[in-house]
Amino acid sequence: MTPAVGRLAPSPTGAQHVGNARTYLVAWLSARSRGGTVRVRVEDIDVWRNKPGAAAEALADLRWLGLDWDGDVVTQSARLPAHAAALDELKRRELVYPCTCTRGDIASAASAPHADHEGPTYPGTCAGRAAADAASLDRPFAWRFRVSDSPPFDDLYRGPTHVDLGRAGGDFVVWRGAAPAYQLAVAVDDADMGVTEVVRGDDLVSSTPRQLLVYRALGRAAPRFAHVPLVVGPDGRRLAKRHGDTRLSALRAAGVSAEAVVGLLAWSCGWLPEPRPVAARELVGRFDLGAIPRAPFALTPAVLATVGYVS
Predict the structure, then answer these.
(1) What is the pLDDT confidence band of residue 115, given thresholds at 50, 70 and 90?
(2) b/e per residue 213-228 (b: at least 16 CB within 10 A)
């Protein structure tokens, strides 16, 4: 059996918080519990959203949590030639087309409300174009991938999963301006890094069939996926500033130990009967993906107080 290759992929668009830490811990333990390796990739292609110093702080957070990795840290923006080569292959096969629609155009054409983070379903306005038509366009455009089907997948945590891309986004953007979009960059990078499993939050479930289409189009082997519940605030919404300061750097500055945070997260995943300080490496033998509760983990002030932190 090929050893597992997992990955941690922090984005330097902001500080890492307790929710990020929980997903990183699950991903790290999933690989380490089977004697696998862990790679780290800084996903910094959204250059207009990157925060100065955030990449270095994210790596410091991982080290503080006791989550080590193998090999050098990969910086996504340094891999633009590989992303561009993948786009060229998609153009050659007429699997992408230039799209001049603005976000406003797409929103106004939407026929129904949408809940998916990808936005409203693309109505196919520019789908009749060929790749070569890009040379004659006199206004900005993005490259969209032609969605032909919606590949089902067997999620390691959720089980058999299917997202109807025809109703959830439709043809999706793989390149905008001078940079690759998330779906293309992540698929190309994971393939080149030899990643065999991707553990991430369940807010990205709808990204998986899109990435499976990219893998298939490029003739690359796809990893297995596991989408785990997020950490939310007391109101049930994704962690944000409105819930107080849950940054790992803030906890560290307040004197909270990494072991206390890891123990709290292990308890939230069903691996400990109560929150208690524990090192990440001590959880390798306790890891059980199926033990993680199906509901999001609510991080309340009372829960944070168990590690000695008041935000």
Answers:
(1) very low
(2) bbbbbbeeebbebbbb
For the chain, list the domains and their CATH numbers. Answer: 7-72+229-305 (3.40.50.620), 79-228 (3.40.50.620)
For 166-185, the pLDDT digits (tens) are 989 999 999 999 999 999 99
Q: Which residues contact 70 (CB under 8 A, 6 or more apart)?
A: 37, 38, 39
Q: How many CB atoms lie within 10 A of CB 100?
A: 15
Dihedral sign from CA coordinates of 252, 257, 259, 262? negative
Report pLDDT digits (tens) over 135-148: 999 999 999 999 99
pLDDT in tens, 262-285: 999 999 999 999 999 999 999 999
Q: What is the pLDDT of residue 108?
A: 59
pLDDT at 1: 63
Quote the pTM value.
Answer: 0.93
First-to-last alpha carbon distance for the chain, in angstroms, is 46
CB atoms within 10 A of CB 2: 7
